[in-house]
Amino acid sequence: MLNKQPSAVSVDTFTESADNFDSQPQSFSQEYQMPKDERLSYPRFPRASAYHPDWVLGGASGGANPLWLTEWLCEVLDLQPGVRVLDLGCGRAMSSIFLHREFGVQVWATDLWYSASENIQRIRDAGVEAGVYPISANARSLPFSEEYFDAVISIDSFMYYGTDELYLSDLARFVKPGGLIAIAQAGFVNEIEHPIPDHLSDWWAAENPYILHSADWWRQHWERSGVVDVTRTDTMPEGWQYWRDWIQLIAPENETELTALNADAGRNFSYIRAIGRRREGLQLFDPNFRIPAEYQQHPLLRNSQ
What we know:
Blueprint: H1 18-23, H2 28-31, H3 53-58, H4 66-74, E1 84-88, H5 94-103, E2 106-111, H6 116-125, E3 132-136, E4 149-155, H7 167-172, E5 175-188, H8 201-207, H9 215-225, E6 228-235, H10 239-250, H11 255-264, E7 269-278
Parallel strand pairs: 1-2, 1-4, 2-3, 4-5
Antiparallel strand pairs: 5-7, 6-7
Helix pairs in contact: 10-11
């Protein structure tokens, strides 16, 4: 298991004799302590562990704990209070709320699949409406002005659109020169080539996970674009165990994935992160560019009168 240390939940019992109990009455709260809820409490993630497990599980939107991945990613970022952050593919805005609460940044919580109307309720309940703004938008058609953000962060969603060779150039337009683009998500320790290992065959057939890649793959993918200077790519130690523990909580019926994770034991599965900074002085292509209409009428055929 991980270095998670379940507390030795000590439930105090009534040790006083009946006479002492009668002569020195004690409140129930003094004599009996309810067991502490240790779900999602991991020393590896001290910030995330402060959040109530029911709140975290109630906002689950994918196969990774968004608070764990956000905390891990931000350990190597220098996010200053007040900077503008695009949380791209934010799901139910859990990472967005976490970013604002923990680092004081302004966050545009942007997602296509999950409702901005639901997210604003979660944001209000968390008391962060003044610093987290829910947006419904497609990652390939973002409604922001160029160079608006100091950083773009994506938690367990970039693989759904970021494998496109041209996407990074499009996304980088919204980040100031020198600004951050940083992702953390499910991936592989190394690229998996055919034939697929036997112990992964059932899971592979069910998931067809060709969008998952290693940290090294993402480094090469981003460097090839010429858009960013890649400052870090790496793999989370024991990431497969956190992945498994999360699935056990949110989808215990997913036996195919759990079996594959346990059989693999970290040989292939893990979480990865990649961080880059937009290069200075780049002229980025605007994919929304349109050639002006300049139609002039001409004869269609040579023998036209």
